[in-house]
Amino acid sequence: HYSSRYKRAVTLPATYNIDILPVVDSTLYDRFYNINNGDINLTINNIADYLAVLFASVGMRFNTLALETRTLKIRMISPLVLTTSNQLPYTASDLENENGVSKINAETLLRLFKNWLIGNKNLVPNDHAMFFTAVKIYGGLDSGIKFNITKGLAYVGTMCKAGGNSSSVVEDKGAYQSEGVAAHELGHCLGSRHDGENNVCFSADRYIMSDSSYPETDSNALHPWRFSSCSSTYVLSLLESLETNNALLQGCLINATGSIEVGDYTVSADVQCQLFYGELSYVCRNSSKASLEDLCDEFYCSIPGTSMCERMIAATGTCCGYQKKCYQGQCVDAAQGQCNINQICPFGDQKGVVLDGKTCADLPSTFCYDNAVYLRCCKTCEKYKTDRQGCTYGDKQLNCNANECGSTFTSGDFQSLAYNFVCCSTCKSDCTDAENLWLSSGTYTCNDYIFNLGNKNVCYQISGNKKIYEYACCKSCEAARDTTNTACPWGNVKTIACAALQSKSPGYICKETELQSCCRTCGLLSSGVSTSTALIPSTITSPTNTPTTTSTTNTPTTTTSTIKKPATIISTPTEPTTSTSTSTPKIIVPTVEECDKKKMLYCDASVKNTSAICVLCILIVVYNYDKMDVQLIK
């Protein structure tokens, strides 16, 4: 196809254009045809849009090659869509059937496609032809062993060679899952071999030219969107060879007549699920990663007709937050006007039945206290949401009776709890604090313990099987709540455990276990804020009134907490403090060196609450997984 191109220039350009002709077979066409309810024009347009997004992602991957002064630009020619089986490079006799699934040998398909290209003389001139099929592709050995992990195949180092040699085949089932395969096969055609194949690189590092799938680690998590140094060497060598033998002067990689330069696209996660599993699929809200930005690594799609969700790799351009999208595995700023999604409820309500045969719209607001329901029905729950402390979504149980207000539950899940607390909307009551918070070494009011002693993260804790927030310190916890951060309302769960994150650079993305313990610090890091001061709790203002009502003993079955916390037993200081005294005791503030010797967090002596007995800098809080000790240094 190259001889028909016009010889345009003797001076070689700094940017080479790879014109790719996508050839789509009838099996993939049928998938899009069914999704678009038989509308042929819409099907063709959607296939073109789909491939444009896919090749935009391929182009972004090729931007990671180090080619000295050269760059490669991917351009997509309008796809050639084969709508009937008699147009295909292969016939029914070339297919194998295994448990009802059609398969074809990768080498056979590539050879047949090469011959098909030779036989079709009137194709649009191109640098590379890529065949997309929904048929299962498998690799194999002469011994008869088949490898079902094979997703594509290409000739190596054949770019700019005529006779159908510059070609590849790719298995595509939708949802942009083949963008990595397409980049891999195009890399082969540009001369790159697998990492670890007689070179100094390693496939286990998971770069684009890895020979298989390998475990993800912190160091290689972003490598699937990048080429290795070995790949850069191979591609550069091929380009230098083409420049030397004047193959480029025949038009290959230079002319772009009739080609479309792929642009900047965005796509929703829900659309990817529907492209892969059908229009009834959606993102599984309760199976997502720890934060919205984490979906650039992976998310989960529902399998229609089942209760199962399956892992999906996010396509480049997937919206991952308000005006943010995925790029090379990371959540980055999107262009103006892109990804204007709701940060609190990015996917909206889950489709269909979510609980007890009811949709989100059918469920009473009571169910929004259940975090699993909230994740599925966040759009509806946000409509129900009120500003009433402790009564965010109204009554905490169904069928509340105003005649019972003022009483106490004597049995069931809410045994010993005040009726007004559980049926807060019906009884029109706000949540209150217990008169005292009993701990093993002393008695405190919620107000003193949370505000004066600076322990607002106690609101996360569970004592025995009872949640402090719900059974004892509802009002104080609500007053201490950061209403701007629903995922981290009371700061870090384990303050000292978060000290290890202080060395992380701004932009660091926490692991799920780190996020569960250190939500505030992790939030600052992901926002690009230094954590040099993030580990010291901010001072908070105490409410003016101290509640006097007594506490109850059992917890309700639901909670308004938005993150999962480990169960923690609370124990008080081994050296009791004069915690409620308003006079200031003689205090020796520990030095940096003293704290360092004890491997404890140092608190700046200038950070203090002058109205309280305990200053932040003399409270050393040591956490482990199941115990919290508070020690006062005198």
TrEMBL record:
Zn(2+) binds at residues 184, 188, 194. One of its GO terms (molecular function) is metal ion binding. Residues 540-561 are annotated as: Disordered. Keywords: Disulfide bond, Glycoprotein, Hydrolase, Metal-binding, Metalloprotease, Protease, Zinc. Transmembrane segments: none annotated. Residues 16-251 form the Peptidase M12B domain. PROSITE patterns: ADAM_MEPRO. It comes from the Eukaryota. GO terms for biological process: proteolysis. The active site is at 185. This is Peptidase M12B domain-containing protein. The gene is ORF110692.
